[in-house]
# Entry
Amino acid sequence: MTILAAAPATAQESAAPLYQFQADGRPRWAGPENRDAAKAAGGRENRGAKGRAFETLAAGASLTLADIHGAGIIDRMWITTEDRSPEMLRGLRLDIYWDGAAKPAVSVPLGDFFGAGAGALVPMETALLASPEGRSYVSYIPMPFRTRARIVVTNEAGKPLKLIFWDVDFRQLAAAPRDALYFHAYWSRTRQTPLGRDFSILPKISGRGRFLGTIVTTFTNPAYGKSWWGEGEVKIYLDGDDVLPTLAGTGTEDYIGTGWGQGTYAHRFQGSPVADEPRGRWTFYRFHIPDPIFFDRDIRVDLQQIGGAPKKQVVEMLSAGVKLIPVTVDPGGRAAFRQLLTAGTKVTDPGLPDGWTNFYRSDDVSAIAFFYLDKPMSGLPPLPAADERLAGLRPPAPPDRKPSGPGSPGE
# Structure
């Protein structure tokens, strides 16, 4: 399946005009043909005839993609691998360290970072990330640093990676901008979200920064059948918020700019590259570029775990022993809307009208949170071990699967 979007407005397009010379910022590429990104040192092997375009990464081994000393800004990263299986996509660990910090600011599964949390890359183009034909990983996220940047990939997939190609494109600077924030990315997963408890996209962190956005992957629980899973609201707690957030959305698909369900699409700032109802696989994203979210002291980002279905279907699931908690019934319109939790009403109470019924549910949810922070370490928990990341993967349908119609997921 090919997902097309309008030509992206990348994060760098607001910089100086293309015709204007910039005295600072000499371009360098770190890759297999020039590991140190040194001047006049690229393509040394095989008399310059493509002697080392890739490396092999044994199971359990690590590979340094770039180790840059001095100030600079990473403008683009490109990686491609011959193995893009669900196990490899989630088994490769991407770590990025800033300014000699002991712990990485980015420590995430490589595939999830590039929107492949559901087990496959799909052709897509966004303002921050891309995979032109579903065979490569591209980042346009600007990543400034003051004294050093180190990027490492570790193979925790339990099998060798025969081919990995890459380049890290950056500019050397005399000094980083004084107000530059450090880029961070955090991944977490809850295989069975507890009923009535929000999933934490980004646990509370302290400092000054900007929440850049998120990519979420949901594997739906078969116990709920084909009921809709995406009624949960995104809630963002800012600068001392405790019980209630300052920012609250209206639903999961609403958060990524669509409504009344969710199909496949990829736009600059929002999209759903995977919407595979038959296999219960969904990946969606929102990048807060046109609507920036800054914080002065702290931030926390949650996603409610709420789904919905007609009242009759919800009652049938309850009768069958499915674990859920009804929260509202909507017969149509604000006046007839019923808040079950406020009223202490049960969905089976006599006299309660029929209508769309929202309910707390439990699914397998994982997410990447992208953010900038005024320090190179966030204090967030480390990336879970590979066995936890790889457990319960739900790969796409085999390639020879016949699409059932124009709206069928094809990745």
